[in-house]
Design brief:
The strands form two sheets. The chain has a seven-stranded parallel sheet, sandwiched between helices. 49% of the residues lie in helices and 15% in strands. The protein starts with a strand and ends with a helix. The protein has two domains: 2-172 and 358-371, Glycogen Phosphorylase B (Rossmann fold, 3-Layer(aba) Sandwich); 192-350, Rossmann fold, CATH 3.40.50. It is α/β, with parallel strands linked by helices and 373 residues long. Uridine-diphosphate-N-acetylglucosamine binds at residues 10-12, 39-43, 62-66, 68, 71, 96-98, 131-132, 214, 248-250.
């Protein structure tokens, strides 16, 4: 029987690996163990609870305001005993975080086959996004098998001379997660206190802009500009509501609270668990974010997204029209927001439902691929 070890550490990795965990569960061809590095803690636990995943190993590495040096070293060191105990044939890592890169290195040292989920996303600028582009390029070098979400991501890997027979286009597991999540939220007996609280805080007869942001390269000046644009939008459109679930990174939560608290129609809340966040995305008029995962989810929900970055490794939704890159310039964010708010035809051209990132069967394809090896 083949032995799997699935490892993740942050909120987005957990959301995108949960469908794979569920797809391997109870499969008689495999013994599958789950390890969390807990690079995130509360934000990871929210996801584990929603998908009812109980990890076999928990490195519990998160420290307040952690740095890349300590985080990388602690994860590599911590994985040694996990790998020796689980003795996996295959180790699965996701995307571009420090967890993905450090676990990839540890799995290579141990001698397991490294399987990279969400492989091949690239900006080809090693410093942007930082450190994610470096993390995913390195993980791509370490990986034995590459599960690419789209044709473009496969092409990126081929440009780096990755062997074609080791690449499989699967779609993005984020869509598997989205479909599982939406189904759960729509079940008649589903109740959720966060959603009930949102119904109290917000007036859903008014238009809502949903905001998130956390990218390291936006810390400091970029984030200040974004907040300044949000304040302008709020003051220009008093009938509008802006809701911002603020990432727990101290470099985000500090400045955002300082710059935006007290504005009457801006609502700053703690990170929402996945169910409530999906529900709120569905209810919002458009989204302003620098998140990778949200760029992938929004097209499936037909929600326009202003991405507060200069480049993206996810060009598919830009080509399709849902996503617009606005960078961190206050005036550009304001102007683009005004266009979406004031021009109905423009808004409609940006809110067409489409699905460049998958059909919800990515995890099934990964399981079948590994089964055939
Ligand atoms: C990390 C990833 C980034 C990913 C993002 C998703 C790296 C280097 N960065 O960035 O690629 O897009 O997660 O959100 O891998 N914190 C808490 N509780 C939590 C989570 C974070 O308090 O549940 C605080 C802690 O002070 C922690 C800090 O946030 O030290 C930073 O966390 P870290 O994972 O290093 O960076 P992120 O900005 O979250
Ligand atoms: N998300 C969530 N609660 C929030 C904000 C985001 O559950 O308050 C989800 C969102 O639906 C997406 C993922 O978290 O699936 C994105 O995570 P994040 O933006 O932290 O990371 P990135 O995708 O940029 O790596």
């Amino acid at each position: 029987m083949k032995k799997n070890l699935i490892v993740f550490g942050t909120r987005p990795e957990a959301i995108k690996m949960a469908p794979l965990v569920l797809a391997f569960a109870n499969n008689p061809n495999f013994i599958t163990k789950i390890c969390v590095t807990a690079q995130h803690r509360e934000m990871l636990d929210q996801v584990l609870e929603f998908f009812e995943i109980a990890p076999d190993y928990d490195l519990n590495v998160m420290k307040p305001n952690q740095n890349l040096y300590g985080l990388t070293a602690t994860i590599i060191e911590g994985m040694k005993s996990v790998l020796e105990d689980a003795q996996p044939d295959y180790v699965y890592v996701h995307g571009d975080t420090t967890t993905s890169m450090a676990v990839g290195i540890a799995a290579f040292y141990y001698g397991a086959k490294v399987c990279h989920v969400e492989a091949g996303l690239r900006t080809f600028d090693r410093k942007y996004p930082f450190p994610e582009e470096f993390n995913r390029q390195l993980t791509g070098k370490i990986a034995d098998y590459h599960f690419s979400p789209t044709f473009v991501s496969k092409e990126n890997l081929l440009k780096e001379n990755t062997k074609e027979e080791n690449i499989l286009i699967t779609g993005n597991t984020v869509i598997d997660a989205l479909l599982i999540g939406v189904k759960k939220v729509n079940e008649t007996d589903f109740t959720n206190t966060e959603i009930e609280n949102l119904k109290i805080i917000l007036d859903f007869s008014k238009r809502i802009i949903l905001v998130t942001g956390h990218r390291r390269e936006n810390h400091g000046e970029g984030l200040i500009n974004i907040c300044s644009a949000l304040k302008d939008i709020a003051l220009n459109y008093p009938d509008l509501q802006i809701i911002y679930p603020v990432h727990l990174n101290p470099n985000v939560v500090g400045p955002v609270n300082e710059l935006l608290s007290g504005v009457e129609n801006i609502f700053l809340v703690k990170p929402l668990a996945y169910a409530a966040f999906l529900w709120l995305m569905e209810k919002s008029y458009f989204i302003i974010t620098d998140s990778g995962g949200i760029q992938e989810e929004a097209p499936s929900l037909g929600k326009p997204v202003l991405v507060t970055r200069d480049t993206t490794e996810r060009p598919e939704a830009v080509d399709a029209g849902t996503v617009s890159l606005v960078g961190t310039n206050r005036d550009v964010i304001l102007e683009e927001s005004k266009k979406l708010l004031d021009n109905k035809a423009y808004y409609q051209s940006k809110s067409i439902l489409h699905n460049p990132y998958g059909d919800g069967k990515a995890s099934e394809r990964i399981v079948n691929f590994i089964k055939e090896l």
